[in-house]
Amino acid sequence: MKKFTKHILALAIVFATLSSNATEIAFLSNEEDGKTILMFDNVSQGDQLMVKDAFGLILYKEAILENGKYNKSFDLTTLPDGNYIFELDKQNQIRVYPFTVDATVVTFNKAQLTVVNKPKVTSKDNTIYITAQNLEAADYTIEIFYDSAKNANEKIYSETFENTTTVGKKFKLLEDKDETYEVVVTANGRSFISTFNF
């Protein structure tokens, strides 16, 4: 009964921490069964939660079904020893939470949390606008492809911006063309794809 009371008290402290910071994550390891409870205070329907290994292989994937709070129990002790991440793919950003498994001991390091802001790609009046901004400098590559009756997936633009935190570009497209354009923005080994029909 004493252990159970300790766990309930620890859980209450975790929920208090979560409510004070809507974007923070908290973990609670249950010593009795070795499971880890993953909790988020602010998720949206359609967000994707994944567990990946050190090579980027997806070991688990789940679509968030409801807005608000999320919590789930995971038995991470069954994973082989190594480095892993929980990745929460939200509408405008990706939040990466690393953890290690060593001899069935799971360790999280909140200090290594990384946040990747997704590039914003919009279109209006035959113009494509691209903006990207992150706290850490990275190399950005922008590529634009188009599909027409004559050419399928032809690259019409490519440019790389090295070691920068901010990218902003505007592209005016021909108005008499009835085509599909695909914009691919790549940074930190991740590619973000947007498609437009004009």
Automatic annotation (TrEMBL):
<feature type="signal peptide">
    <location>
        <begin position="1"/>
        <end position="22"/>
    </location>
</feature>
<protein>
    <recommendedName>
        <fullName>Por secretion system C-terminal sorting domain-containing protein</fullName>
    </recommendedName>
</protein>
<keyword id="KW-0732">Signal</keyword>
